[in-house]
Design a protein that fits this description.
Layout: H1 8-12, E1 17-21, H2 23-33, E2 40-44, H3 51-60, H4 66-75, H5 80-87, H6 100-112, H7 115-125, E3 131-134, E4 141-146, E5 151-153, H8 158-165, E6 169-175, H9 183-191, E7 194-197, H10 202-210, H11 215-221, E8 226-229, H12 244-254, E9 262-266, H13 272-279, H14 290-295, E10 299-303, H15 317-331, E11 332-336, E12 340-344
């Protein structure tokens, strides 16, 4: 696997990569990708209603800033003290549990009168690589419908409800249904050289983006290769017992045909101690059932992209970015026949 970091000129002219998702998985991937290209766009869900983000959403009527902030932290090019400020969480008083970065976004939302503009201004303050775009400016709630017919509204309530119902999620919806996307999100997808979905929580970080009007179709219509980056583990309260093919199937059910070309999965073993700890949480290493995924029309590629350090089974940002860029170089060849299009090598 090539780990060559591009020089400044190559970095500035690097591929236009659009990453769609939310949560820790997306921000981890962005941290690695920013070393390879300046032209990064994160299209991020705004369905969160828990924690500090949920408090600001309820108190100030603004979209939840948490996932947006995580992405900006990963892409920021600031002094170490600013990085520490962004991630600082208050420990007492009425602000207990609230992130300082969330408060900056809330203040900018008030100053500019627009969450989209607040994100743009904060991106400039942090001198981020690329751009972060909320998928919609609508005030949306996430509803989960379970296989037994039970329903729950609110992203933060899905975990507990799934444990209580003890059955799989059938599908999720946005309320209101099919909200309008931000034009900038559609434009970035249309102009992308490479589109990535995941890694991240399947039903609460990735799929909510596909339920915004026109997003899934824009991904399918784009000429860029589309890669789904598999999670390393299943997730308690969301995808217990799921295989990689179950993840892909859920994405396609909520999206449209032709939305994915390739599935990138981790091939590195997860440390036995971590596996045991995750087992206590009803989570396990993701099983890669290649035949089922291939039958859905996707190519399957395995690379050792898991981190070898830490107390969690997560992607290594550098290994993941190198694997993604390797796949991009191998499979996407730019040619011009009146318009830009791509040919995937056999």
């Amino acid at each position: 696997m090539s780990n060559t970091i591009p020089n400044l000129q190559q970095w500035e002219r690097g591929p236009k990569i659009v990453a769609v998702g939310g949560g820790t998985g997306l921000s981890t991937m962005l941290r690695g990708l920013k070393k390879y290209t300046k032209n990064l766009t994160a299209v991020v869900t705004v369905a969160d209603d828990g924690g500090g983000s949920g408090m600001l959403r309820r108190d100030m009527g603004m979209p939840p800033p948490g996932d947006i902030r995580h992405c900006m932290e990963s892409l920021a090019n600031t002094e170490p003290i600013m990085q520490r400020l962004l991630t600082y969480r208050f420990t007492e008083g009425s602000l207990a549990g609230q992130s300082f970065g969330n408060l900056i976004l809330a203040a900018l939302n008030g100053v500019t009168g627009s969450f989209e503009e607040a994100v743009r201004q904060m991106s400039q303050v942090l001198a981020i690589t690329g751009q972060v775009i909320p998928v919609t400016s609508a005030d949306v709630q996430l509803e989960a419908v379970f296989e037994n017919g039970a329903r729950v509204v609110g992203e933060s309530k899905i975990y507990a409800c799934k444990k209580e119902q003890d059955c799989r999620i059938s599908h999720v919806n946005l309320i209101p249904n099919r909200p309008k996307p931000l034009p900038a999100a559609l434009e970035a997808i249309q102009e992308a050289d490479l589109i990535l979905l995941g890694p991240g929580s399947l039903y609460t970080s990735i799929i909510p983006n596909l339920l915004v009007d026109g997003i899934a179709q824009a991904i399918a219509d784009a000429s860029a290769p589309k890669i789904y980056v598999c999670n390393i583990m299943t997730q308690e309260g969301e995808t217990e017992g799921y295989t990689a093919a179950d993840h892909v199937e859920a994405l396609l059910v909520h999206g449209v045909p032709g939305m994915l070309d390739l599935c990138l999965a981790n091939s590195a073993p997860v440390h036995p101690g971590l596996v045991e700890r995750y087992r206590e949480e009803d989570a396990a290493p993701l099983v890669l059932d290649e035949e089922r995924i291939s039958a859905m029309g996707l190519e399957v590629v395995q690379r050792p992209v898991a981190s070898e350090e830490g107390n969690y089974a997560r992607h290594d940002p550098d290994k993941l970015a190198a694997a993604i860029l390797e796949l991009y170089r191998q499979r996407a060849m730019r040619i011009f026949r009146g318009e830009r299009r791509y040919i995937l090598e056999e």
